[in-house]
Amino acid sequence: MQPAPVEEGGGRPCAVASEHVRCAVCDGDQARTYRSRMYAIGAVRFDLVRCRCCGLVYVDPRPDGATLARMYDDPAYYGEGYNLGVESENYFERKDELLRLYDAELERIEREVGGRGDMLELGSAGGFFLEAGRRRGWRVRGVELSPVAARYSKAELGLDVFEGLLEDAPFEPRSFDLCVADNVLEHTTAPSAVARDLCRLLRPGGHLLVVVPTYVNSSWFRLLSALRRVLPRSLLGGRLLRLLKLDPGHDGGYPYHVLEFDRRTLLRLLRATGLEIVSARGSLPLPAHLFKVARPGPRVRLLRGVFSALDLLMRAGLLPGARLRVLARKR
């Protein structure tokens, strides 16, 4: 596809180019259209396709490397782009809230892996997870591609964060007891290579924690997409319809997620690196515009109940999750 001029960052014209890609999990080249015109950069639209061999959903044609890099240079990413509509606040404004949430998550991780040690977070953003770990006694380092986020974590929190790609980071093999990739792999163009690099950095017996969204590559999305013409739009509301990617008049924004995993494709990818799966649990992100309302009305209370019930059933393994958390161990 020829580059197309669009306007970004205060009206500056930028070229948007794309390239055909193969499946990042099985290297197949037999994909079918999954959702056309799912994302947009300016006037350029991007489709989602699904691999006929393994089931991975991905953007194809995909924005080329230069276009992807510009997307993450935009400070606006840490608003709607980073939160994908689930949260109503800018990421950096949630510092105290995130530190509390990450402290609880790290307490859980410590029970699962048997203590603390050296931790690497890939995609460390502003460093709040690393900071929570440091406060609990972990020795922490990070890798972050976004200049905005990497510089914040170093300047504001004094963290050891490498700005750039994992493959260029100056880490010795077998340096870490825990590597974390929380909502990262879906942004990568070569997830198998990333998983291998993370595995190489782990000590024997060390753990890799991976979290990915799975809603778009799920039976939930396929069912709701088929039923979207008859869904009770007044009950759901425009914001929830956009969050569920069901509003036909609203494009999905930038293609930040170039990959959409499901349980099968993610576990296949991790096992291919030689990792042993310890646990794999689904869940459902809870939208802030429903769960952070001080005085909810009947409609919001009803939707809260639905989301909470679905989350409990997903965590119990009785329903497929809209998000997947996998803990794996290096043999």
Instruction: List the secondary-structure elements in sequence, H or E.
Output: EEEEEEEHHHEHEHEEHEHHEHEHHE
* Computed Rg: 20 Å
- Name the shape in a single word: globular
- As for the CATH topology of the largest domain, it is Rossmann fold
**How much of the sequence is in beta strands?**
25-35%
Strand order of the largest sheet: 10-9-8-11-12-15-14
In total, how many domains does the architecture comprise?
A: 2
Query: What's the architecture of the largest domain, going by CATH?
Result: 3-Layer(aba) Sandwich
**Protein structure class:** alpha/beta
Give a description of the structure.
The chain has helices spanning 65-73, 80-83, 95-113, 128-136, 147-157, 191-201, 219-227, 233-243, 263-272, 288-291, 298-315, and strands at residues 4-8, 12-16, 18-19, 31-41, 44-51, 57-59, 62-63, 118-122, 139-144, 161-163, 176-182, 202-213, 259-260, 275-283, 323-330. By secondary structure, the protein is α/β, with parallel strands linked by helices. The strands form four sheets. It has a seven-stranded mixed β-sheet, sandwiched between helices. The chain is globular, with a radius of gyration of 20 Å. Mean pLDDT is 91; it is low at 1-13.
Describe the SSE topology.
Blueprint lengths: L3 E5 L3 E5 L1 E2 L11 E11 L2 E8 L5 E3 L2 E2 L1 H9 L6 H4 L11 H19 L4 E5 L5 H9 L2 E6 L2 H11 L3 E3 L12 E7 L8 H11 E12 L5 H9 L5 H11 L15 E2 L2 H10 L2 E9 L4 H4 L6 H18 L7 E8 L1
Parallel strand pairs: 8-9, 8-11, 9-10, 11-12
Antiparallel strand pairs: 1-2, 3-7, 4-5, 5-6, 6-13, 12-15, 14-15
